[in-house]
Write a structure and sequence with these properties.
With 126 residues, this protein is mainly α. The chain is 42% helix and 0% strand.
């Protein structure tokens, strides 16, 4: 009886130890954004919206309208952009909170850094 208990205990321990897997996820490398180089809305920020946001945020759908030609006017309000505290901008917080807001895919770290740098530069339509 003791031998059976020992074998069962060893089998349980072996299966438990064999089932442990650790998947290391390396942090994403962030491309540095040169603060001296102006970030263009049409050339650099609008493509972020076009790639990941306009399936929901289009004309006649969920606000703000992030389609090309409408996005800048739709987000250029104190509700979405806070140039005095860029990291607190609703636009920035929504897209970087991957998983934090249902339905928002989020941006990768480099894209988020670009968006934040654009807001820090005054969120200009250039």
């Amino acid at each position: 009886m003791k031998r059976i208990r020992l074998v069962v205990l060893l089998l349980i321990l072996a299966s438990g130890m064999g089932g442990c897997v650790y998947d290391f996820i390396a942090p994403e490398a962030v491309e540095p954004v040169d603060p001296g180089t102006p970030i263009g809305f049409a050339a650099q920020i609008q493509p972020l919206f076009t790639a990941g946001c306009i399936s929901c945020h289009k004309t006649g759908s969920t606000a703000p309208d992030l389609t090309s030609g409408n996005a800048y006017n739709a987000i250029n309000t104190s509700k979405y952009i806070n140039t005095s505290s860029p990291a607190q901008s609703l636009l920035y917080r929504r897209v970087v909170a991957s998983g934090g807001f249902t339905g928002h895919p989020g941006l990768n770290a480099s894209q988020a850094a670009l968006l934040l740098a654009w807001i820090e530069q005054g969120a200009k339509n250039n």
